[in-house]
Fold this protein.
Amino acid sequence: MKIFDRLERRRNWSEDERLILDQVQRLADEVIAPAAEHYDHTKEFPHANVAAINDLGLNGLFVPEAYGGFPGSFRLYLAVVSILAEACASTGIIYATNFHAMKPLIDFGTEEQKQRLLPRLAEGALAALAITETSAGSDATGMKTRFTPDGDDIIVDGGKIFITNGDQADLILLFGKWSEIEDARKAISVLVFEKGAPGFEVIRLEDKMGHRASSTAAIAFDGCRVPRANLIGAPGDGLAILLASLNKSRPSIAAHALGIARAAFKDMVRYMNDRRQSGRRVIDFQGNQFLVADLATELAMAENWLDYVGAVIDDGEGDFGLEASMAKMRASDLAMRMTTEAVQMHGGYGYCRDYRVERLMRDAKITQIWEGTNQVHRQLIGKSFAAK
Ligand SMILES: Cc1cc2nc3c(=O)[nH]c(=O)nc-3n(C[C@H](O)[C@H](O)[C@H](O)COP(=O)(O)OP(=O)(O)OC[C@H]3O[C@@H](n4cnc5c(N)ncnc54)[C@H](O)[C@@H]3O)c2cc1C
């Protein structure tokens, strides 16, 4: 894997960043990866992994110092997500969801909100991002959850589906429509919902193909009172906040998908070098070498593109939505292709649970669906080239 070693070296991490990455890699190798099969099999929420991640203070990586964090670069955050996802995709997405949910609070919250809520996150609170509803999937503007102002409170009524960490979260970034605004797009607003408010209920947990240890919940809000102080921005600011936030969570989803792809690539190459048929190693058949060549090249390109997108964001350049879409789409398509081919190269053994590639293939599929399906990303990217 000389090519990938050099790619990693060329990232030029500082000494402090290298130290963090080494710690995360150790955690991934010694704690998270060995337990991944158990959690996949039992569907238990991996509390021990979350505790270990918090022992390293990894939520602090994206929380500003003034609120208890030790912020690193966005590139560093992406590398951490990728390492965790390579070890266990469920654990990777549980961690990344904290970022996806709370980055809007960091970017758009008031000083008071940040002082009140962010130290909890830095100390290890779990967060969830609640957008999707039965009537609002790819088109989030179809949401029906209602925010009705009532003095110093907002009354929340409605329901969300498919919410990662939804049953576990201490803080939920919740999108809904402001009752006093008629226009479907302009009504979208966003608030931080804190665990414990009466009227909140977990309706069901999904029984999924992959990411089985990450909980995916349908949740309901029945007359829940939330302090108006928890509204992010003004009523009607939700859609702009949503779009800005997705632009940062999509590279994070790409990093997660690349973690899965990398795991599959390593397992595939190792197996192809070990397994012999017709007196040769599976990797010695030329057709299979072509496959490895294509996949290695794709992986190197996708890793490099993501690092580039991270650097663009770190440099404070705005308007990186298309680059983020490209990273998400390419990385998740690669994760699916890589895991499918890794199963293929394992032959019948790849179809059985004894080999990790079986789980990786199941874990990969959702990366093409969440945070905007790849059809939606293709549409966004393609449309951007159409002359106005
Ligand atoms: C395990 C899991 C975890 C999730 N976590 C979260 C979470 O934490 N928070 C959250 O809010 N949501 C979450 N989701 C929801 C996820 O983001 C949605 O499932 C996704 O956005 C797609 O919406 P949908 O399922 O309603 O599909 P639909 O929007 O109904 O799409 C159905 C099909 O139509 C296609 N389609 C739709 N619109 C277009 C278009 N404009 N152009 C071309 N094709 C189109 C889609 O690509 C897809 O193939 C999660 C889902 C799952 C399964």
Remarks:
- Strands lie at 127-130, 146-150, 153-164, 171-178, 188-194, 200-205, 216-227, 231-232, 276-277, 280-281.
